[in-house]
């Protein structure tokens, strides 16, 4: 499911109540950056040779060797002299997962100042729906027959009722900051998120799953979608740094 418009069933005859949109797509767009492998090298070399020319001894082999050394020895600060800014559109619960990582800078749309759009998340049919095992040591497995269909049905009716109530409160003149309290955490939000490469590597180490990582992580699907999209775009900007990150177990320096 990519997107579907639905009229809230309990208020189907109320023409003033907007249709809700069910969406499974989570988007991540790199909108601004200043990030390169060469920038890491410049930051590292200033500690040993002082201010240096940008073109001095910056062959591909030298850059690769120094970045690998920095990653292996966990000299992290040279990876901080850059930035990447992403525009993310995701359900609120996924945005809150991002905000657990306090090394980012965030600016999120505000439901105090603008009316919330009736757009809500539902997983697509490929999403694994059940957990097997103990907390902290479980794996995700497919749902049983009918699980996904029932999830979508319940989501549709719940989201519809919640947004109808929100819309009624807004129409009555209740402040947006109060009316928003009735909305679910599957409501879509958008935000700008900025970090440096070192912080991003820490985020990726926890929010992606790689069996060969030094510390394999098992993130929730939706935040993993965000992390994978960010990694793909960062890899294009800093391929040597990314390769070193992979080589040394996906541990942030």
From TrEMBL:
Its EC number is 2.1.1.148. CDD domains: ThyX. It is an enzyme of class 2 (transferase). Pfam families: Thy1. Coiled coil: none annotated. FAD binds at residues 77, 100-102, 108, 196-198, 202. It catalyses: dUMP + (6R)-5,10-methylene-5,6,7,8-tetrahydrofolate + NADPH + H(+) = dTMP + (6S)-5,6,7,8-tetrahydrofolate + NADP(+). GO terms for molecular function: flavin adenine dinucleotide binding; NADPH binding; thymidylate synthase (FAD) activity; thymidylate synthase activity. Its cofactor is FAD. Binds 4 FAD per tetramer. Each FAD binding site is formed by three monomers. Pathway: Pyrimidine metabolism; dTTP biosynthesis. DUMP binds at residues 108-112, 180, 207. The active site is at residue 207. GO terms for biological process: dTMP biosynthetic process; dTTP biosynthetic process; methylation. Keywords: FAD, Flavoprotein, Methyltransferase, NADP, Nucleotide biosynthesis, Transferase. InterPro entries: Thymidylate_synthase_ThyX, Thymidylate_synthase_ThyX_sf. Belongs to the thymidylate synthase ThyX family. NCBIfam families: thyX. Catalyzes the reductive methylation of 2'-deoxyuridine-5'-monophosphate (dUMP) to 2'-deoxythymidine-5'-monophosphate (dTMP) while utilizing 5,10-methylenetetrahydrofolate (mTHF) as the methyl donor, and NADPH and FADH(2) as the reductant. Homotetramer. This is Flavin-dependent thymidylate synthase.
